[in-house]
Predict the 3D structure of the following.
Amino acid sequence: MYYDALKTFVTLVEVKNFTKTAETLRMSQPSVSLHIKNLEKEFQTKLFLRSPKLLKITPTGETLYDRAKQIITIYEQTKQDILEQHNSIKGELKIGASFTIGEYILPSLLFDLQKNYPELELHVVIGNTREIIQSVRLYQVDIGLIEGQTNEKELSVHAFMQDELFIVSSNNHKLACKDEVTVTDLQDQAWITREVGSGTREYLNHVIRSNGLKVKSLLTISSNQGIKETLMNGMGLSLLSHSVIEKDVQHRNLSIIQLKNQSFTRTLSYVYSPIIQDKKNVRLFINALNNKWPYKAQSTN
């Protein structure tokens, strides 16, 4: 990039003296001479006619002078436009979110942001946790919201919410009439779950392993709504976030199966690449996230 050399050239044309140019730009006179020499080499032309008492610009120098002024103006305006984007709430913010977060938790925050910052253009990409982490790593989104943690050492991960999950079924399931069930009741049941790569799927796998559950069958559906519709039709059990099932339980479309002496909670986190953490719109989003859902880590005692 010859920006500095072009700026030196323009100044020299206007003040017509190497020494004054050096003083104006706070650089050494040899540096001024080197900038001009580099430009003459780049454009393969003489830019000035020099004599002990006279410095005169050549016709090709005049051409470069006009273009250099334009280039410097465009450069400075572009720099200013970018700075304005960093220091005002406008421009784009690309958010990646897992299905549970993107479909049931994030919308209320998006509403607040759009109301308070109408010039902020929001783009939301929804996928499973694995896909969102990949999107953040490849800079396809500015920030991602995921269910749980990630081992990606290149990314910064921060918890923002505790999420409770429940075992659910249709109202007609044989376990739905019980006040609470035991691990024995959950043996040899049909389960409906999300796809591999989903945080919800990973949590169900953990519950199955930690309780030593034998699974009769496992139906995979890559949609929370699809799982709920299948449950309502009388098939199997599932483990879903409270945010996903809240309205369906209230409307008595689904029933919660309470497991004796056990509850299921996980951490929801936001993740971003450290190199974009100073982007103003990202900081705004993180502050809005933390203000809406103040998070306190659970004690490990």
